[in-house]
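Regression test case RT-17, inverse folding.

Input:
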């Protein structure tokens, strides 16, 4: 294969180098395009063909349904690793030794409190506020209680910022839910694991001890790992581009949370469950909703279906579908929504519209069913996604800064009015 691409404009040929990734993916390096062509740019709304960076964190092959964090397959990690090991792997590049993991968790635990004044901010939110809005605000507000800038070249400063946010974020996650439910805002317990602490902080009732359930611990551990990173998706790109102005880590994460909230991204897990409920309430008429999803005049989409990159299957969805069966079985829950979901999936996979467009269930299709079985309210689903995605966002932010990426600032093709003289009010 040649090592360059040629662009021809007005008979002039411009050579652009090709670069290859470690998995043999090819990119045309257009860094010199504007200067060598005298101003031409590329245009690619939604960045469907545009690589925004070189990254060594996550590899995914949408055609083959492969997802790997730092080279390790998602299937193996979901089966064998703890969420904290995966967080360490994503952020620092290698699986931790026992000693590294112990230190990592001890340091995280030392930061698993937030300033009591944060409670005043939470109190000011109406109970009806969506937990994602609250979480994004609180994450940004953390900057007010902690130094806002981090010298990324200083390993200690960077490490401290990382363990700080990993310690404080689960507290904020739990508090967004407890605020909605009118429960006291509590802290975790240093004797518990990361995932056990999340569960306790979310579910402990004021007048009884919280009993850990191994089924829930295992399910949450798996879900967090499956959500931990997904290369340059909408929220990760938001975190990177926000941080590229040298905005601090916490505010960049807050921007990522806002991006995740949308129903085309992480907000889909809430939208899926609401859709499945609506179908059930409507008598389980999946055909009606399939027809709506295919009708171009109807804004309805089959939530939890389709993916920008996966065009064969989403490996996370396969793992989650199996986990949904196991968790509901272990907890002895029969949720009719699971049958609606399976029916809808079967129909969609046989439907020409979905086949032609390579639309398969994505990570959000079955995750809500597990969250619901765990007792997590539907408005918290995307918050749980954010909790899982936190290490991925941190890893993306850190990599972007360490690689000294320039400020993210796309070009545009202007299609508005050309120059026109100002008209005074009386002339308009
Ligand atoms: N239901 C019905 N039609 C769909 C759907 C869907 N869920 N998804 C895509 N299509 C159609 C779309 O209308 C288009 O048809 P046509 O070629 O006739 O115009 C074609 O499939 C290609 O879709 P697209 O919107 O150009 O694809 P995209 O890569 O820009 O969007 C997506 C990807 C995930 C935003 C989209 O598939 C979607 O809206 N899905 C539903 C929301 C969802 O489940 N989001 C979670 C994504 S995975 C987790 C995450 O990112 O957080």
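Golden output:
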């Amino acid at each position: 294969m040649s090592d360059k691409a040629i662009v021809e404009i007005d008979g002039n040929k411009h050579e652009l180098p090709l670069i290859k990734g470690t998995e043999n993916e090819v990119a045309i390096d257009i860094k010199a395009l504007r200067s060598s062509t005298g101003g031409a740019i590329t245009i690619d709304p939604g960045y469907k063909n545009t690589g925004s960076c070189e990254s060594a964190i996550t590899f995914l092959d949408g055609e083959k349904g492969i997802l790997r964090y730092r080279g390790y397959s998602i299937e193996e990690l979901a089966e064998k690793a703890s969420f904290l090991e995966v967080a360490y792997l994503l952020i620092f590049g290698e699986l931790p030794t026992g000693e590294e993991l112990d230190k990592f968790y001890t340091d995280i635990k030392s930061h698993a409190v937030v300033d009591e004044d944060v409670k005043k901010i939470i109190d000011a939110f109406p109970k009806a506020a969506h937990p994602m809005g609250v979480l994004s605000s609180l994450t940004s507000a953390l900057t007010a209680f902690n130094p806002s800038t981090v010298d990324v070249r200083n390993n200690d400063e960077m490490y401290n910022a990382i363990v700080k946010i990993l310690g404080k974020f689960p507290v904020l996650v739990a508090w967004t839910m407890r605020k909605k439910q009118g429960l006291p805002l509590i802290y975790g317990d240093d004797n518990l694991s990361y995932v056990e602490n999340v569960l306790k902080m979310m579910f402990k009732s004021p007048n009884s001890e919280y009993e850990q359930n191994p089924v829930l611990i295992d399910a949450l551990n798996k879900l967090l790992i499956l959500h931990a990173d997904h290369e340059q998706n909408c929220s990760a790109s938001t975190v990177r581009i926000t941080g590229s102005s040298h905005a601090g880590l916490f505010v960049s994460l807050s921007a990522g949370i806002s991006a995740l909230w949308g129903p085309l991204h992480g907000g889909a897990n809430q939208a899926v469950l609401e859709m499945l409920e609506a179908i059930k309430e409507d008598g389980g008429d999946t055909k009606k909703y399939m027809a709506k999803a295919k009708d171009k005049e109807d804004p309805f989409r089959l939530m939890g279906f389709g993916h920008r990159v996966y065009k064969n299957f989403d490996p996370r969805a396969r793992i989650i579908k199996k986990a949904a069966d196991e968790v509901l079985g272990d907890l002895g829950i029969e949720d009719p929504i699971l049958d609606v979901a399976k029916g809808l999936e079967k129909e969609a996979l046989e439907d020409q519209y979905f086949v032609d467009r390579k639309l398969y269930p994505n990570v959000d299709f079955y995750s809500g069913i597990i969250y619901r079985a765990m007792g997590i309210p539907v408005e918290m689903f995307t918050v749980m996604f954010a909790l899982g995605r936190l290490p991925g966002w941190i890893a993306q932010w850190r990599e972007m800064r360490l690689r000294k990426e320039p400020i993210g600032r796309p070009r545009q093709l202007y299609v508005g009015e050309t120059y026109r003289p100002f008209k005074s009010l009386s002339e308009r």
